[in-house]
Write a structure and sequence with these properties.
By secondary structure, the chain is α+β, with helices and mostly antiparallel strands. It has one domain: tt1808, chain A, CATH 3.90.1570.10. Helices cover about 25% and strands about 35% of the residues. The protein contains four helices and twelve strands. The radius of gyration is 16 Å and the shape is globular. The N and C termini lie far apart (about 50 Å). The mean pLDDT is about 95.
Length: about 180
Amino acid sequence: MLSQKYLPHYTYEDYKNWEGRWELIEGIPFAMSPAPAVKHQLISNKIAWQLEELLKNCKECKALLPVDWKISEDTVVQPDNLVICYPLENKPYITKAPTLIFEVVSKSTQEKDEKIKFEIYQREGVKYYILIYPEEKLSKVFELINGRYSKLIDATDETVEFNLKNCLLNFDFSKIWE
């Protein structure tokens, strides 16, 4: 397509100087504003709290809130909630794939979360990807098996076990809706 030939292609060097919250996917900027809705933030906080509690005895894995994951020079994403099971680098971002990612889906992020990020996370080897739908009180849980995501469960109030390297995490989905 001719128009793509003339579109700018941004890199991490451009991205790190932008004001506000952005994601950069294959050189294309995606604005992350306005700020997430209150319901989105409440659910994300409950996910973070539960992950922190469940991982308190796991020496290898850490729960993080949105942080830059620099996948390449032209791709930087910020998952809502994530778990990494490797030592942090001395950088303002992570460069290795998280083991587990939660994305809280809104109307403005639905296509990106379900399609673009789904493909990126699958390609980059994220073991578990969970899409959270606040309005439906539904969580779609995917596991990477042989390089492809396979749906494990549509969770509403179930507890799902995640095998994170040397730690088992029994996540109770009923606690994020309260």
